[in-house]
C-alpha cells in the first residue's frame, strides 16, 4: 500500500511510494519477454552491465579502438559513443555544434517522447537541456545559491547535520548506509536549498528517483504512472511558488526563480523540468558518491587505512572518489549540422553520447585508473561534473558535503565496513547503490 505525506494546506495526500525499482521489478515479473535486447556487444546503453558492475572492460576495449564509435542498434536507436577523456572535453567545448537543447533531444540517451493521440508531447525543458542564450540566463538565476560565499554560510549547518546523522548510527549492528546516511543527508540538503517543508522532505528523494530513472522512462507502458507522479511534484511546488511570491527575495531556489526575469514566466513544463534538474542533480550525484566512497574504501582497504592515517588527504580523496564513482554516467548531445569528428562523418541530428564514466577511467590520463588512489595527483581532472558551459552548477556544494562527511567520519574514528548485501542501481544514466549493508567499528 502506498504511504503518504501531509499536504501544505490540508486536503490532498501526497504519495511517496512505490519506488521506481518496485514498479520496474513488478513490470518485468509480469512481462518477462519485455527486457530489451542488445545485439551489439559494444552497446553500452545496456543497464545490466552497470547493475552487475562489469562495464569497465567493455569501455577499455572501446578506448583502445579510438575516441568515437557508432552503435547502430540499441533500445534507444543508433548513437555515437565518445569514450576518451580528451574527446569528451572536445565535444563539450563546441556547444553550438553539439546541442544540449531539449528541442533536439536533450541530455540523456532517451529519445523525445512521441505525443499520444490528441495530446501534447510530455516535454520537460530545463536549463541544462538548453542552448545559449536561454541556458545562460536561467543558469545565472540559480548560480548564486552555489557561490563560495554561500558555501561558507552553509558549512556549519552541513557539519552539524552530518554529525547528528553519524551519531545516530548503530555500532556493531548491520544497517543500510544508503538509507541511513546517503539518502538522509542529501534529502536534508535539498530541503534546505528549496526551503522545503521539513516533514515532507522525503518526497524529494521519491520524486528524484522517478524523474532520473532512464530505464523506467524507456518503458512506454509506465509513462502514465511516471507522468502522474511528476505532475504531483509540480502541484506541490506550485503551492510553494504561490506562497513565496507573496514574500520578498530570499536565498532559497524557488524565491530565486520567482525574482528572476529569466525564470519567473516559465511554462508549467519548464517549471517542472527545472525542478527535476535541481532535485536529481542535487540528490543523485551527492547521494551516490556518499555510498560510493564507503564501497570503494572497502574494496581498497589500503586506501581506507591511508585516509585513517592522513586526514589531510581528505580534499583530494573527495576528488578521487568522485572520479572513481562518476555518479552520472553520460550526457547526450545532438549534432546541429553535418560535421567531421575524429575522422568520422557525423550527420545533422545524430545522437552523440559522452560517457563520463569511461573518460574518468581513461588510461591516457589516469594511471591504473580502475584503482582508487586518494593520493592521485591529477584526481581533479575528472569529468564527473561535465566540462564547459554545462559543468554542474552545484559542484562546489557536492564537494563540500562529501568533504564534511569524510571529516566527520574521521573525527569520530569510524571505520565503515561492507558486511552484507550490495545492490547497484540498474540504469545507464545514474551510477549508484540501492542498498549497501555495512557495520561500524572504531579505528
Automatic annotation (TrEMBL):
CDD domains: CYP142-like. Belongs to the cytochrome P450 family. Cytochromes P450 are a group of heme-thiolate monooxygenases. They oxidize a variety of structurally unrelated compounds, including steroids, fatty acids, and xenobiotics. It comes from Parapontixanthobacter aurantiacus. This is Cytochrome P450. One of its GO terms (molecular function) is monooxygenase activity. Keywords: Heme, Iron, Metal-binding, Monooxygenase, Oxidoreductase. Gene3D superfamilies: Cytochrome P450.
